[in-house]
């Protein structure tokens, strides 16, 4: 009997990512900026250098990298109210921006940065699944350019970036592990997971949820293998983007 292969809504192979691109220097005033696209998910990232620190870090001889995340009202099919008009951030927004900050700090030499803070503002201008993974991956490029800006002005002797970091989503869709879910898959996937990994293969964070039935250890390992291949591709694109 002939085996029927999985047909994803996007017609991609199970281990195929969406088209990914990085456009650098898109904001005139930011020390570093990047428009990152994972297919139809587009995120604008701005890196801002500030000669100040959170009060609890003062005098410790190290800097800080943090992030803010937001989704523009018409990034989605139906308009979403701005969180500012509601007077507070949602739990989802807080969780995502903390994840972005943790991810970038994991590859930054905070002592080498000095007593300064870099804030990465990640604004989703169009959403089609994987906004947090696109934000993390593009934020690395914006951070790199911010640090390069500082080095060119003799504020740093060398870039305090230890290695690359990127993120990708994986999931179980129609019973099969797939890489880089778009919204059509993410909204109905049996399992949805996000993997943040370094260019050297280190795991920064894994977020995995069984939306319907629990997933097995073998399925987790299959997702991890897909994520590793996806991050390898993303890091190669980051390297190409920053030259």
UniProtKB/TrEMBL annotation:
Keywords: Nucleotidyltransferase, RNA-binding, rRNA processing, Transferase, tRNA processing, tRNA-binding. Its EC number is 2.7.7.56. It holds the Pfam family RNase_PH. Residues 16-146, 165-229 form the Exoribonuclease phosphorolytic domain. GO terms for biological process: rRNA 3'-end processing; rRNA catabolic process; tRNA processing. It catalyses: tRNA(n+1) + phosphate = tRNA(n) + a ribonucleoside 5'-diphosphate. GO terms for molecular function: 3'-5'-RNA exonuclease activity; tRNA binding; tRNA nucleotidyltransferase activity. Phosphate binds at residues 92, 130-132. Gene3D superfamilies: GHMP Kinase, N-terminal domain (3.30.230.70). The keyword DNA-binding does not apply. The keyword RNA-binding applies. Homohexameric ring arranged as a trimer of dimers. Phosphorolytic 3'-5' exoribonuclease that plays an important role in tRNA 3'-end maturation. Removes nucleotide residues following the 3'-CCA terminus of tRNAs; can also add nucleotides to the ends of RNA molecules by using nucleoside diphosphates as substrates, but this may not be physiologically important. Probably plays a role in initiation of 16S rRNA degradation (leading to ribosome degradation) during starvation. Belongs to the RNase PH family. This is Ribonuclease PH. The lineage of its organism: Bacteria, Pseudomonadati, Pseudomonadota, Alphaproteobacteria, Hyphomicrobiales.
